[in-house]
Amino acid sequence: MHLIIYLSYLISGLHWANAAINGSNVNNYSTQINCKKNYIKVELNLNDSISNADIYLENLKDYPVKDCQAIKEGNRRSFQFNLKDFHQCGLTKSKNLWTGLTTYSHRIVLDYLNNTQEFVYLNCTYKSLPKKHHIIKRDLLPEGFVEDEDFELTDTLVQQAPEPEVLMQIKQNNEIVTGNLTIVSGTPLLMEIKLNEESAKIYGLKANFLEVGNTLELNETILFNGCTVDPYLFDNFNLTENEYLLAKFRAFKFPDSSYVQFRANVQICLNKCQPTQCSNGQTAYGRRRRRELRRQAYEISLNTLLQVKDRTDNDDNKAIHEELQKHLKDLRVKNLFLKH
């Protein structure tokens, strides 16, 4: 059985959200969320009957990063997310370009001993403060440059259309790959980015940037202004008949970590986003064109995790491994030019 609890906060301060919904475990815990400017803290206060439940962030059950694991204090389980590095633990960031509201969201999984699960969906919404105006020449800033923003919490939300829900997932042979599964390097995979059914009737998608990292300090751009940096590792995103983005790629990993994190910057447009022509002649659904600015409705930053292992037990696997490492080295060199 799967049960989902939605916790949404738009105002400052500390709030209690009792689980007033149908389900076998709804009276067994209470949830407390604290939305602050620089961090979000979530606490689950458990009754003794479920104190042995396994509690973790969705897709990060065995993730070794300590900051992404539940802190245990008696019957209390807590998570604290640093908003300056919101990608680290898989938070999704959604900015409404009409209202200036920015929302951070995630899901917490509660695994019970009776083989049932509950999902606690949380989000905190912030309002951007007005910019101070200075006379600064900005001609040298790259297209797509995003300034740091100051936030204030707000208790109002004007919705002219439903807020889009975006899903990013990896598939192998049409089966979803989660961060709990280990994939062999070189395995052909698909990355899928799509809107939920209601949102897809109103909005379109395009991917502007995609970074890959080792969850430590190494991050390389593999999709720049909507076009692939290395088509051997990762192909361009194409729009399918079902109106979602799909890209082929090969499983790979960096030498010092078995986890690879993909961080995407996705534009949500009214109706459809216009594709761009990449230098290799392919049409890709990426890159923001200046004449399309009024069509843009949301900017979404989301990520997914892949666990990869190398296999060099025969000549074929050794050749694949060496080719992947060659392209990863080339990717790093190409990124030096992109960043300067």
From TrEMBL:
Keywords: Signal
Domain ZP: 34-285
Signal found in the keyword field: yes
Domain of life per record: Eukaryota
DNA damage found in the keyword field: no
Family annotation (PANTHER family): GH04558P (PTHR22907), ZP DOMAIN-CONTAINING PROTEIN (PTHR22907:SF46)
Name of the molecule in the record: Uncharacterized protein LOC119638612 isoform X1
